[in-house]
Amino acid sequence: MRACREGGAAIEQALRLLDRSYFGILFRDSLRGLKDHESARDLVQDTFIKVWLRCATFQGDSELLPWVKSVHRHALLDRLRKSTGEVPLDTTEDQPGEAQLRIAELSEETIPRPDSEAARAQLDACFQRCWQRFEAASPSHALVIAWIVEDGLTHEQIGELLGRTPGATREFISQCRKRARLHLAEWYELAFGTGETA
Amino acid sequence: MTDEDQDWLDALAGRAPTDSRRPATREAQRLREFIQRNVHAPDVAVPARDARREAQLLERARREGLIDPAQLTKRRRRLLVPMRPGGWVALAAGVAGIATALTLFLHGSPRTEQLRSPHENVSRIEAADPTALKMEILDELRAAGVRATGYEALGIEGIDAQLPKPVPPRVRDILTQHRVSVPGDGVLRIEIAAQSTP
Q: Does B60 contact A at CB distance below 8 Å?
């Protein structure tokens, strides 16, 4: 509040501190989703402005970085949604989804199964190749899955990131799994073999 | 989201599964293992301090009316007007929280402590008319091809710039003429205060 009242130097100093403390970590996260340095920098600076404008929602007894990250991730997902216009997958329960069909197709192809520890490198290479395709096709879902692994996000935290209701969040998580199985199908086949993930 | 999706989410996040034999849990555990090994934010070098970047952020904050409350933009007014009376208390607590958290963060982190060390490199000079001198230096630097940004805060006029490397002789001359030392790291920060009366 002192910074708001004094204006000028106090706010400037606070913004400088935000930039020096958090730019790097937020920039790399932005770059992962946006794949463009200029857009990534723009998004991080937009985040710092939002952090300042929304400081009323910050709980003083919580850690600052997780809150700043959540503001940033929300903005990143929002920007990805606007720029890519991702289309929901078919979620009809009583029909085989696209993911299942794709996995079934792959299971009929002649993909060599790894049968030794030496195949680990092959699995990693396959995973990286598939993950790149996943990121390109469904950047929001790939990002959220990576964040779940990195930060152990809960259903509630994902809902906050998305700005969605619990029901819509459940649907999004379900979509994440389906999309992962679709785009990582080749890796699934190698890693699990036919039928294990059905 | 089904119970199976919830198992998948928990295992993906690294939480202890209720039953590790469930297919969704095994699937997510394997996926988590490969993500941890293969998916990372881009490893790009980002300087902790970048005068040009900070200048851009401050310029943006000025445009948003954050630094001079008298110039609040319509956007910020929209954000502030609907706030309930209690919201101002929360805002005060929030800003105080940010200030406290930033301070704790800076004092608690060796990396940022270094940033507050004598490497601050702010050249402080005095002038009878700080605004006029700021404009003069800004004009001269810009004429020499330097992208410099001026600001004013609490009666202190300031200039931020990222100098080219090596610093051109013309720029050195300008700085020397104004008794400003040439920064070794290329980050130029000048503060001009009014001359104190004897």
A: yes
